[in-house]
């Protein structure tokens, strides 16, 4: 399945009876599950196993492709150890060419089957990609995360957020590492950088994206961007 989608298009949370590989040829999408959300540029793809609830939002105009695997076929063909949960994977050169061969060529049915089987063996999981924002699992954690995401400029302090969430800074400091693997400070910084990448994907300048997430200078924004993603902000915007 393939199609072109305009920025802002949203496919609300849903499930498939088949496993799904979701990726883009161009543009950026965001895939959200109950455990978190991934920003997915063309360098990455998302694997959603059978019946894994997920939603898709188009961040910038995108051409998105998907492959669906019948559950029984997937069980027969998948390599041992394939996680039974959604995860993001890296688009290796071999994987990209296999996908192009399927969608841009006209392979015979026998050759197409070999290609989709081989695709499963090219899955290289990215354990903690910087464009993944894990979500807390508790009600308090989710409530606090929602408040923080609604405040990308970081106008509210930790104490103020805790008060609004009817909890304490001490509880937050314990809860976030337990439920997300990140301290709240690191989680919030990652959330801000992901929001900035969203803006860059939509065509904002670096100065505008930096201001949207509360940075007063490009140098501090660039420093935080590299600390979170390991890449230069200049690779993402102009």
How would you describe what is shown here?
By secondary structure, this protein is an alpha+beta fold. The chain has 2 domains: about 120 residues, Regulatory protein AraC (Jelly Rolls), CATH 2.60.120.280; about 100 residues, Homeodomain-like (Arc Repressor Mutant, subunit A), CATH 1.10.10.60. About 40% of the residues lie in helices and about 25% in strands. It has 9 helices and 8 strands. Strands 1, 2, 3, 4, 5, 6, 7 and 8 form an 8-stranded antiparallel beta sheet that branches. A hairpin with a 2-residue loop joins strand 3 and strand 4. Helix 2 packs antiparallel against helix 3 and helix 7 runs antiparallel to helix 8. It starts with a strand and ends in a 9-residue tail after the last helix.
Break the fold down into its secondary structure elements and pairings.
Layout: E1 2-5, E2 10-14, E3 19-33, E4 36-40, E5 44-48, E6 54-69, H1 71-77, E7 87-90, H2 93-104, H3 109-120, E8 132-134, H4 139-149, H5 158-164, H6 169-180, H7 184-201, H8 206-212, H9 218-229
Helix pairs in contact: 2-3, 7-8
